[in-house]
Amino acid sequence: MISIYWFKMSNYLAVFWPSSDARCTMAEHFHLNTPLLESVRMSRRVGTTVYLKMENSQPSGSFKIRGIGHLCRQLARQSKGVVCSSGGNAGMAAAYVARKMGLPATIVVPSSSPRMVIQRLQDEGAAVKIIGKVWDDANAEALRLAETEGLTYVPPFDHPLLWQGHATMIAEAAASLGPSVRPGAVVVSVGGGGLLCGVVQGLKDLGWTDVPIVAMETVGADCFNAAVRAGRTVTLDDITSEAKCLGAKTVCKQAFEYSQCSELTIISELVTDQQALHAVETFLDEERVLVEMACGAALAAVYTGLIRRLQDEGRLPTPLGPLLVIVCGGCSVDMEQLSDLRNKLRT
User: Fold this and answer.
1) Distance in angstroms (rounded) separating the CA atoms of residues 297 and 177
2) How confident is the model over 33-67, as pLDDT tens digits?
3) pTM of the predicted model as reported, rounded to 2 decimal places
4) Beta pairing, strands 50-54 & 36-39
5) Based on the number of CB atoms within 10 Å of its own CB, is 9 exposed (0-12), middle (13-18) or buried (19 or more)?
6) Which of 6, 65, 146, 181 has the highest Cβ tally under 10 A?
């Protein structure tokens, strides 16, 4: 029997028939085939159809489960346990997958991680260690634990198996759009670069390397943009953005190399924390979905008029085909956290 799922929100109505992949058992993969929804209000703002790939509906709350689930199935079957460094989303995915596989999980988080994230990790059965101020500090401890305790290290963004897993969202989007439709552009948030690499991999798999990618970061968590401007990977002095889940000081090498590839068009853009927060609030008001600041960076490409500016500058085509926005989601937000962000960024 095939179940049919209806998703009704304020500005769109979609029916979702699970594909054969979506009907696979958890033993085959851990992620869901997420809905692709058309947003009427966002489409009006941009002047073209906007489709939202709703990765916020994954079991762990974000796209991270795609790559981490794929990696763990390949590398952690006979493991003593897994260890992951994360400001939230990768850790949640690793903890969820480990629980499903019956493995112990240790998640190392920086002190900037919200209390709610730590509680959710513990609810998944993970042991949580708080180390350092930023992700890079936590990652050093995770690597040490992997070496000294014989645990399988689960990187949050820098591994080919992760990118292969993340690429499945592009294949799903293509199946939902149908054989006669391809995106005019893809909008994606960038932290360490894992999602960007997965999107590129997915576009390559489909022969869509001519589809431009708009790579969004916040000021103060902009390691990819800094690398693009410098022409080499660079390490930020600190993470000053409130979008902590974008908070890698150095983007992965593969993401930078893609930015230099003549066969690809990757447009690196920045928004302020205030713009990302406004995007989160507008998305909540208009679409009835709460996402974190890292996801707000991608949404801000629509809400700030950046897409139209890129068209005016000739960096995106006019007219523009359907805009595919990856709603990467995020577990590190609730109404209390949203209120805290408002107080920090508007005082």
Assistant:
1) 24
2) 999 999 999 999 999 999 999 999 999 999 999 99
3) 0.88
4) antiparallel
5) middle
6) 65
